[in-house]
Structure formats: C-alpha cells, structure tokens
Amino acid sequence: MTVVREDAGAVLVDVLVQPRAARARLGPVRQDRLVVAVTAPPVDGEANRAVVEALARALGVPKTSVEVVRGDTSRRKTVRVRGATRAAVEALAG
To answer: What fold does the segment set 4-93 form as a domain?
Structure first.
C-alpha cells in the first residue's frame, strides 16, 4: 500500500476523491489511494478546496499547509501536506 511518501519535510498523499458524497469522510484505501469523500461538487475547484479542508482538519494542520500538487481536474490526486507525519496519514488510512 503506497498511499503516503515522505518528501522534503512534507508528506505526499495519493487520494481518490469522491465528490458530491452524502457526507464528508476519509478512508478507506481503494486502488492504492486514500478515499476522501466530500460533499462539494467538482465544479470551479470546490471539491479540491473541500479535500484540502478535510485533510487539514483531520491532520491538525493549517489549510495553507495542504496543497494539491497533481491531478487538479482528476479524481485521482496527489496532495502535499507540510507539518504532518507519515504515521498520522497512515492512521487515517486505517
């Protein structure tokens, strides 16, 4: 399972976004990616903002420490999180 990798003082998290979900949630891991369900639609970056907010809240870091680095318009994204540990992200994955 390669959901998270360390990268220069940050962690890279591979996520699979589920927009327009009934409720926001993190996990489980599917297709080697952490599922991030968000209630926002995939329009005008709303789902991306919701993913950033959900990960920041779950990991206890500011939203400015979370950024989508790959897959801006795709459900399959890579997100960089500064200030979080690999263990914390793996705990979210279950």
So the answer is: Conserved Hypothetical Protein Mth637; Chain: A; (3.30.1200)
